[in-house]
Amino acid sequence: MTESDKKTTSVIRALILDGTRKANSGHPGGALSSTDMAYVVYKHFLKYNPKNPLWINRDRFVLSAGHESMLLYSLLTLQGFISVEDLKNFRQLGSITPGHPEYGLTDGVDATTGPLGQGFSMAVGMAVAETMLSAKLGGEAVNHFTFTLAGDGDLQEPVALGAASLAGHWGLNKLIALYDKNNAQISGPTSRADDTDIKEVFEGFGWNTIEIDGHNHDEIIDAIKQAQSQNEKPTLIIGHTIMAKGTATREGDHTTHGSPLPPEEIAATKEKLGLPKDEFFYLPDDVVNYFRNNFDELNENVNNWNNRVNEKIESDEEFKKLWEEATSEYISDDLETPDFSSTDKIATRAAFGKTLAKFGEQMQTLVGGSADLEPSNSTKAFAELVGEYKKNNRSGRNLSFGVREFPMAAIVNGIALHGGLKPFGATFLVFADYERAAIRLSAMQHLHVLHVLTHDSFYVGEDGPTHQPVEHVQSLRLIPNLLVFRPSDAKETAGAMKAALDANNRPSALILTRQGLPVLELPEDEIIANVKKGAYVIYQNSEEPEIILIATGSEVHLAIAAAKELDNFKVRVVSMPSMELFEAQSEEYKNSILPKNIRYRVAVEAGVSLGWQKYTGLDGWVFGFDRFGESAPYQDLEKAFGFTPDNLAEQVKKRYEKFKNGSQS
Prior knowledge:
It is built from 27 helices and 19 strands. By secondary structure, it is α/β, with parallel strands linked by helices. It has 4 domains: 3-291, Rossmann fold, CATH 3.40.50.970; 298-327, no CATH class; 332-525, Rossmann fold, CATH 3.40.50.970; 531-664, Rossmann fold (3-Layer(aba) Sandwich). The longest helix is centred in the N-terminal third of the chain and has 21 residues, at 3-23.
């Protein structure tokens, strides 16, 4: 370690202490133990564009241990992406230095991290994306490493281990994980809860592992060089470190993990590090200049890359087409959909499968896979079309995730974060609970991800209540910025997929049936346009209805059939494939679909009733399913649960009479 390196890491440690102390909040201990490894990556290895933090061919760095955010913010300050004033506003309202890193808020932050294990898993997704794009566009366009820094807590989370298993299986040799093994966490030493041999575990996953002193810069540099020369495996660098490294009297103290240090300890630590003990947020020019002394080389690297890519665009028409698709927002209007006009009945999961394969023919950037449910999720045709992604076939676009729903969702988030690809992940709706934390981060990061969730209600049938989702659709609708689609037929399914592709700044959840459904008679173009509005009139026997039935998914057909039995009443049926898109429409449009003067409204959905009241109002009601299902053929279940046209029509009539009598009294 040179004197300049020593001084720079000392300054970083002091910034961590000052930032957490001023905020009176934060996690200094782990940030101090990780400082040396993170610094070496940023100073001596990281390839990036000092003028553009979103340069597509940059090395990615994911701080999976997101609570160590003051370490990352200090490094971003040295890079010039944020300022010392931003450090002073750590964890304050409106600042760009929140308690955990947030993608899209702070320049240089490659992923929103905090929930442990997910950052590691998203880094796996980024490494996948790099290999896929490099295979398609060539190494002269995409050729970089993905680094992630993880702590003990990250590798205690099963999601990280599931993602690590896939990373080894896929041979992601340009993925480098640095593990800050300081053996301390909030509640005490890690030995209280864990004695896993991580080295042995990761070697079993197919990783290259290297153990080092995580504070020795020469060992860190040598380990990263070994990792970068690895041609077949991802690398885990296990850095043995000391919690709160560098402090005057608190080294190894687990209580420093989650609490700022006292002022007197900070002053003594600065004195020990050779820094002015009474100067706060100390960042001298010589440290900044030393850290940035490779900027000319970095900028030259970016300029050379720009020249190579521009030459390729001008000389290679196929490359140009792929590059434009990868770097621009793809417009779904250009996509042809399957012709469902002559189809009698088809499950929306099957319609999704046909549409996915059709889109896969037209989009080279559409990638994804299923959590060991290809036949059930109807992703098999896509898989056969695009080929299997493997360590010896980076051009394949189908990802076999195995039974790893949560890692799958986190990995596709990482693919989306990398940029250049449109990812999806598929499983059963009932397993959305396993994915939920990653779906939430999809929405928080405004990622263009499609979460495909089939087998959407008690109509799953014989598998019984464990596999029959009840509350899941409404619980997904609670997640801000998530588009939830529950299409009623094949044409609406194609429309939902187009709408999801148009939603460039938010993820979508596509909720699909197991059972076959009739195909709506309206023209497909009309239905696709209507789906983008979230809700539309699908049937009515009068221009001035007195009763409105609002339904989604398979229950749209139930509502239409019930409405036809209500031939003595003026009835309108509204299909509402997406509440979120409907809410985004103008008040004029919303009132045209659900006129305010029509107060008798019935929502129909084979799921919990809570949440529909905003559309049914005080005078309407919900025909829902507020219980767990049973194991039987779905035809028997719909009769037993009353999801039949005659029962729904009878219930609507009875309650409408009460409504009229109440309104007249």
